[in-house]
Amino acid sequence: MSLEHEAAVVPITAVAHWNGCYLVGTGNSLRLYSADFHALTKTRVFEDQVIHGIILSDASTTTEEEVILVIWGSRSVRFAWAKIGIEEPEIWLGSNLVAGDWILDARFDTLTADGLELDEATGVHRQTRVPLVTAHNALLELKCRWRMDQMQRHRAARQSHATNAKEISSSQTSLTELTAASRCILYSANLLWLSTSRILVAAGTAFGEIIVWSCNIRDTIAGPDIKVTTHNVFTGHEGSIYGLRISPYLVPIHERGTQRLLASCSDDRTIRVWQIATVDDSDNVTAPQEVIDKAKEKETGFYADAMRTPIEFSDDAGQLALALGHASRIWNVHFLPCKSSAGTEALLPGLTSVGEDATCQFWDLALDNDGRVVIRHIRSSEHHCGKNIWSSAIACELDGQVDVITGGADGSITLHRARDAKLDKDHSNDHEEWTIHDVSSAMKTHSACEVRPTSYDNETKEGSEITAIHEQEGSVPICSQGSDLDAQICSFPLESNDLFRDYTFIRPNSFVTMTKAGTLLLATPAVRDSWGTLANTATKTFMGWLRVIDFKDLRNGSTLSKPCTPYPPPCSFIGSRSGSIYHYDDNWGLTSKVAQVDGMVSGLFLDRMQFGTGDPGFTLNVLSLTVTTGGGEYLDNFLSKSYECSSLYLKSSHSKLKLPPNFVVTSIKHIILDMQHELLVVGSRSSGTAIYSICRPRTAGDPEALQPPIEGSGQCLPTHMLSNAHGKEAVTSIAWLPDPTSGAGPEEFYRSGYLFSTGRDGTYAIHHLIIKYDSISSLLMHKIILPFGPHIEGLLIDHQNSHLLLWGFRNKRFVLWNETIAEEVMSVECGGAHRNWAFNPSERGQGGMFVWTKANVCNIYHQRRPLHRKVRRGGHGREIKAVAVAPAPLDVDGKRRHFFATGAEDTDIRIFEYDPANSAVSSESVGFRCLRVLRKHNTGIQYLQWSEDGSYLFSSGGFEELFVWHVQSAPIVGIATVCESVLPFQSEIPDLRITSLDLRRNDIVQTTKTRSSDAVFDIACTYSDSTVRVYAYRSSKYGCTWQHVYTGSYGPNYTCLTRCVFLPSSTTLMTAGGDGFLAFWDLHRRPSSKTTLPYLDQADAQQIPQTCGLKSVVHQSTIKALAYHPLDEGTILLISGGDDNALGISIIRHSMAKGEISRKQPASEAPASSHGRTQVSLSTLLVPRAHSAAITAISMVAISHQKSVPEVSSKDIRKKFHAVTASNDQRIKTWKITIDLSMPGVAGVQVKKLRDESTDVADVASMAMLATLVDESNASTDASDMAPNASPRATSARVVVCGVGLEVWRLR
């Protein structure tokens, strides 16, 4: 049997950029990605060592198709040579050399041109030297030399062996020591070649000092002449130095000339910039002896006198600037290239930093008014999950574009666009700030033709309809005055004390705003030329302003309409304190009064719809305006059949609906089911969602006619209420998705669909509605907590891409989130949710326009495309503690999909789908696709368990958290999940963990009283206080109930119980604990066929006896992993692993008959006893030293048999299994276990180790099989592809291994 590594998502520990391609170190492998982010090749660099760093040779020493690189991890280092200008990219590896200490940094000798010629015809030697710095400040030199004719031979060998990497002869590389190690302990270092013979070293110690020194290497006849000079020792950081970067170029600083800078970062969360003393090749800089002696004292960090004395060896050296950034430790910092333009002074460079908070921060260096250098924060990029960005690199393209590539602990790779705020402004994203004075001044320079957008041809009609609009009573053109509306167009400036009030979008990039003084302003994009340059050079702004009209009636109390759809119609409505409603049409520039309601207008909700009337090729455009009044008991709804609303249409389709008590409207969605039936869905501030059913009479011969509601529905009450979506929080937006199968019911009128909603509880929800003529029923299918919030304000269903977009606020930032790919698309610092704002997403979901008020300043941000791109998607950002494979597939998008769930210390549960076909070619997912992220736990996940049919997922964690998730399919989101119930029982012990659980369907209770649609489970839980508790859980459409049925205590020593298992076909519960014992509890008091609801409704839990049948030692200490498989009725194979590094194979026999079972005293046979109705015996075979560390995860798969002997009883058949074990030693081992059931105890058990491989997953905590059957005779397809009644066929099993990352291994 072979064990093959297939796919992995593990932390990205090293990244590098070369000629548009990306080299990524993940685990012990090197991956090469193309410029368009497709995986080209993968090479295993080290046997069992993670890659920590990658450096590339200078562009002058490489070609466009090949590059030399050095790869290191811990003490191991290798040369490599990569070539991509062929059909199959090649990576050639040099010898694996081992240094005497950890390697922190390396740098190619880019200033020496000896031996770097490429001459394949003559086979000239190729030589490269690379200095390395270690964790004790020693300098090493790595040299490599090879011949091109050897490359040709290796290439031929590669083709014959069908591998993508070939090692170069070991005699061609060498590693020598240049300088001896010192007493200091370094956490970071950086190297820079100053000349052909001098290299500059910046070393950051564990105690907060930065040592800057150089090494001069001169080749002589006697050998290399090496001289070391210390230049600076900087103090100031209050923690260990984790990142250092020397500027590769001299930087001009005001009144100081050009200087070389050093950037540092630390666990004190600060970034500091230092000026390094001038270093040249003449060795003129030498520190005084007394300062050198003090520096030597400081190397250990334990000398208080030295710590209080900052050391700066040169008058022109020292700290220039300091900034506090990140929420936790900062791991690395880089200089960004600075640019200069003709006739301008060169700019200071930028900075980028990454840290433990999984963010990438961008900074600018600038000079303040006093000429001092300051660090200014530009933006924060948060596109990794969990904690830690472990690697980062700068990618400079030939066109001048600068990107930052980062790799996180979540296994994802992100490309961040780096922008210089002064010279590199990207017109794809604009940000402007406007005061009232700025707007007033801009209106003098902009003309109407510059800012007036062209009308949409498909939204207007010519001829008599246009004339009718102009002839409406009360209509006022934009360039005239209307006395009956108290409106006035004038050219005098806006009042200086005026304030921006509401905003509403009328086109994708245009919006109107109403001021406090009653002035309606229009903001539209200013004209650009074909190159994207602003045509209006006087203002240099991307937005233009136009004063539409002044309303005296709207002073100090106006309300703008709020669009209910992301793409609003080209019009807006304005409500006044007197109840007047005005309409602004942007196509024609008209303003008119269209309606009058009772009371002050408090809310206007505008919805646009398209409805097919049944006439081929004809679509009816419908506009719905819903009006709410302050303190009113009713809401008014107006309908129009076109987007250019006239008062005639509004008055003829008026509906008045009664609101429930204390119902404050916050959102509206108008749904047209057909020409006669409508739904008006109304969200409230704290009372849930009300659904009104509106019926209209059918008008023969005119499919466009919209008639008033029929008698009795003009002032109707809600038909249905939804109160379980967002609790007592406001419902902020609602969307509707029709069900494709709608109308297939037996009733005369039957419609169904999916109602999407967002709320200020930080969630979005999906209800499935079934609408009949006289009733509406609903089912909550999906409710998810989003990673931002709690103010979730809107959503968009992108039908073209099948994506779901949501937006809202996280702290002081506005966030646009793509839920389908679980990725943040847009983030804007705005000050928070408590302000006037409006947002309109772009059609492709790449951004949009966001406008908000901050300190009476109108801010406009327009994003046309994101500032980042995912090269590869990842998984959890913390250690994965639990994994569970769904036992049954689920229909998603018309396909049967197999998936598994993982739970981690980041408190998230992720549901993955694994596609082996994409494991080698997909760069974004590497075979793994995250279908859903469940966020509700407050602590790390302890255990996961699926129900037998895969429709329920149970999860446990700290603080006695036990959640029940109902899983099903739904459109757009794919897998729909909702937390159906939470364990209601809590003890008085703080931070009590539910360490594991097991469940089984309670068929006895289910068949007696419960309905067929109900699900009843017995759930056993082990707790960290050594107690066992069993609960009965029933799920039905009428609600969920819990009952505490059994409880028991393991003993007075409070041993933490780690696992529990219901033994198949038995009333026995088995537990494993921290003392190495297996204990069996007899749950003998089960309900009989006559026992019905009293079993679920009993008040007191029954106490389990402390020992039931058996308590036997298996391991010397904690049992960390279990896997079991039934052998026959009453016999179970149990495989266990513990802290004693041993592997236990146990045979468990249990019987329901009464009476004592004879006890056998050999070591292989544990004592047996009976208690109540179940009798258990246990026999164990222990394999010592199975791993060199604790065994933390076990999984096994049965081997099918093609041969059988009919005359032999089933107990004489030899059972065979393959077991896979994982340990903290980062080894994966496979075992073949053969069991002869005809022999007593474990006498018939044979164990053989088959494979021993290294894994990239550290701290393995769990594993599970993705397939359950292996045939010894053949190997072909997956078990999931077999016909239901087919005989066992050949298949290869896959095992998913989880810890710090996850990976899949294939057993062939």
UniProtKB/TrEMBL annotation:
GO cellular component, one term: cytoplasm
Primary subcellular site in the record, as a coarse category: cytoplasm
Residues in WD repeats: 234-284, 934-975
Family classification: Belongs to the WD repeat WDR6 family.
Subcellular location: Cytoplasm
Keyword tags: Cytoplasm, Repeat, tRNA processing, WD repeat
Organism, scientific name: Viridothelium virens
Record protein name field: WD40 repeat-like protein
Family matches, as InterPro entries: tRNA_Anticodon_Mtase-Reg, WD40/YVTN_repeat-like_dom_sf, WD40_repeat_dom_sf, WD40_rpt
Alphabetized Pfam families for the sequence: WD40
Keyword check for tRNA processing: yes
Biological process according to GO: tRNA methylation
Domain of life: Eukaryota
